[in-house]
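Posting this for the archive.
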Amino acid sequence: MTKKTKIGVIGAGSFGTAVANLLAENNDVILYARNIDVVNQINNSKEHKGQKIDSRIVATNNPEDITTHCQLVFPIVPSNSFKQMLQEFKPYLTPQHILIHGTKGLHIEKELTNDLELTKEDIYTMSALILKETAVVRVGCLAGPNLATEIAQKQVAAAVVASRYDEVIELGKKAISSSRFMVYGSNEIVGIELAGVLKNYIAIAAGMTTGLGYGDNAKALLVTRGMSEMINIAKAMGYSPKAFLGIAGIGDLIATCNSKLSRNFRVGYFLTQNKNIEQIKAEIGEVAEGVKTLQLIKAMSKYGFKAPIASVLYKIIFEGMEIQRGLEFLMTRNVDADVDFLS
C-alpha cells in the first residue's frame, strides 16, 4: 500500500468519527454513513458528533466508494448491527480487502432467553463474523482504552492492533499511529476481542460502586477480582490469558471502570439511582454491551467457570436482587488465592 492509498471507515458514530480523524493524520479517508443527511453534514459543515472533521475525510453512503478505493477498511459499528453491515458490503468485498474492526461485542444467531445454553461455537467475535459472512481473509481488530471523547479532544491514548497476520498488524499500525496515539501489535486476536467484551460487565459493577458511594479501595478490589474472573472465563473456553494482561485487557478495564464517559459504567451508576434498564436505554441511547454479555455468560454455564460478579449482576438486572445486597456479597466474598488465574 502506498502513502496515498485511501483508508475506509465504516460507521460514523462517535468512535468511528474519532478513528477517521486519527487516520486522516496520515491518510486520505472515506467515511461511510448509511444516512445521507449525516453524509451531507460531514461533507458540508465538516462537523459531526461534536467533532471537527479533518479536511482529508470525505463521507459517503455508497459501499462501493469504500471497497473500490480502499484496500484497508476499519468497520466500527455496534455489535448488534455488525452482521447487517457485513451483508450490505458483502457483494463488494474480496480477498484483497483487509478489515480491522473496532467493535467490542459478540454475535450469536440464537435468541437470548433465560434457559439458553451456548457453546463457544455458537459465539462469534467480530473477526469471526467477518470471515463467516464475507470473502475477506485478512482480518484484525483495534482495541484498547479508547474513549471516543478523549480521542476527539486529541488527548494521548494507545491501542492494540491484533491479527493472525503480521502484515495486517503492520499496515494497521502504520495507518493510525501518531505522536498522540500509540499502537502496539498482537497475534492474540481472539483473546484481545474477548478482553474488550468481558470488561464491559465489570464496568457496570464499577458504576454501581460509585453510585452507592464506595471508595477507591473497594473499586480496586472490584477491578482486580474482575480481571481474575475475565481470565478464568477465557481459560475455561480454551483461550490464553496473555491478551488480558496488556493494554487491551487491564488497560481497557481500568479506563472503563473509572470513566463516567463509559456507557457500561453509566448503566451501573443509573441502576443505583432507581432507574430500570428500559429507562437507562432511553437516556443513553442503547443498552450497553455489558448487559448482553451477562446473558451470554449465564448461557455458557456448562463450561463450569466461576463468575460471581457476572452472576450477581445478572440477578440484580434480570431477577430483581437488591443492589446493595449484591455488592456486599461480592465485597465480603472470601477467595483463597490472590492471583488464582495463574494456577
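Residues 195-334 form a domain with the N-(1-d-carboxylethyl)-l-norvaline Dehydrogenase; domain 2 fold (CATH 1.10.1040.10). The first strand starts at residue 6 and ends at 10.
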